[in-house]
Amino acid sequence: MDREKNIFDEEEVEEKDMLVRCYEGILANDATSCYFSELEYEHIIGFYIANKQMKEAMQAIALGERSLCSPLIQLCKATAFAFDSKPRKALKLLEHIERSYDEDELDTFKLKFCKAYALAMLGQHYESIVVQQDLLDNEVEDIEDVEQLLTLIVGWLFVHEQHEAVLDNLQYFEPQLQLPSHLLGYMAYSCSALDRPDKAVSYYKQAVQQDPFEPCLWCSMADLLEDEEEALQAYDYALALDDEMVSAYMGKASLLSWMGRESEAAETLNTCITTCPYDEAAYSIM
């Protein structure tokens, strides 16, 4: 089956479009069945998954199953399980789908995408990487699809503080892909969390080269730089991009105080409070 679009693409389904509104209008009239195509159901279900409305996603899946005998609806269901933190259910359903349908009936990209994510959630990182490599070698039409999957997996690992796994995933693919700045930022933060500051700084420097307009990258890098003047310059870059970044004011003031430049440190704190009068964190640094 040709891949029409990616159910995981949140940017396409952030707001309700005419199709979702039509579907919800039919439900509002107490309809027990909705007659949409499988691609229309995929879009509707994808909207709810992207917006973390899992109850609504499962309701749409149930209606889709009632009116269509479609492997795509089953893939949507596996996706919903994975995004609802039920990776074992997702993998069990994916196995059933693979047994029940011929490969030419399946969207193998979506199937492997979901499988890689569910495996990562279960801590089966090697198996997940194998599936991701298979996607990269055989399924990918656009390299951004792999970056999207990496972002999804690494984001989940990052939130759950599995920093070694973050690095394992990204360092494996680093030679094959030009990692975007946000993934380099994940690598940098994970290195920092694992007490590897030199590697963290190296990744932050690569990240700001790619995206020099992201203040969080500059501030996080400044926190780790050993060269004091270079660190001050990085804090200033962050504040030039976002003059309400309290963490940059705090880092800069602390560093200035460490350097014995107390008057400049006090001036930085005053600027922070003047600029961010409604941010409680600004007052915690006094």
Layout of strands and helices, then pairs:
Blueprint (H helix, E strand, L loop, with lengths): L17 H11 L9 H13 L3 H14 L3 H13 L3 H14 L7 H14 L3 H15 L3 H17 L3 H11 L7 H13 L3 H14 L4 H10 L3 H14 L4 H13 L3 H14 L4 H5 L2
Q: For the record, give the distance between the C-alpha atoms at the N and C termini, rounded to a whole number.
A: 61 Å
Estimate the helix proportion, in percent: over 70%
Low-confidence stretches: 1-13
Average pLDDT works out at: 89
Shape: elongated
Estimate what percentage of residues fall within beta strands: under 5%
What is the N-to-C order of secondary-structure elements (H for helix, E for strand)? HHHHHHHHHHHHHHHH
Biggest sheet record: none
Integer-rounded radius of gyration:
23 Å
Number of strands: 0
* Total helical segments: 16
Structural class: mainly alpha
